[in-house]
Amino acid sequence: MRVSPIVFPDPETLGRKLAAEIALEIEDAARAGRPYVLGCPGGRSAASTYRALADEVAARRLDLGHVVIVMMDEYVEATPLGSHRWEYHAIDPGLPHSCLRFGRAPTMLDTINRAMQNALAGRSTPKAVVTAADEDATAFVKGLAR
Question: What pTM was estimated for this model as a whole?
C-alpha cells in the first residue's frame, strides 16, 4: 500500500492537526477508563504540537489525570569495560541536551499544566513525565494498567 505524504504549510498547522488527534485519543481513553501514555520526542521539532495540545486541552476541558507523558529519546554515555565491551548510562538530566530535562521544562509539561490551571479549575494534570531511559519507566507504565 502506498502512502501519500501530507505537506503542511507551516509547523503551527501541523501542530494543530496532531494536537487535535492526540486530544481525541485522550478523550477516548478517558471514556474507556484506561490510562493514556503519550510518547513524546524531545527537541524543538514537536514544540508547535505541544503548544497546540495545551490549547486543545483547555478548549475541550480535558482532565489529564489518566495521562502519562513518556519522553521517548534520551542520550547515553558509553563507558568502556574492556576489550569491545561498553556500559551505557543515561546522561545527567540537567544537561542542556537531555530529553528528560526538556520534558520537565516549561516547554511541555508546564505549558500543558498552565493551560489546565488557567482554564480548568479542579481538573487533573498528567500523572508523570518519565523517560524511556528511566530504569523504572517500563514498570511504571505497565503499573498503570493495573
Answer: 0.66
Given a contact cutoff of 8 angstroms between Cβ atoms, the answer to whether 25 and 36 are in contact is: yes
Helix and strand numbers (H, E) in the chain are 5, 5
- Cell numbers linked to 145: 494498567
Cα–Cα distance, 100 to 145 (Å, whole number):
23
Pairing of strands 85-90, 76-82: antiparallel
Residue-wise pLDDT for 24-54, tens only, equals: 999 999 999 999 988 887 667 888 888 899 8
At 76, give phi and psi (nearest 5°): -125, 160
- Provide CB contacts within 8 A for 77, sequence distance 6+: 88, 89, 90, 91
3-class DSSP assignment, residue 105: coil
Element of type H or E holding 30? helix 11-32
| Distance from C-alpha of 9 to C-alpha of 134, rounded to nearest angstrom | 36
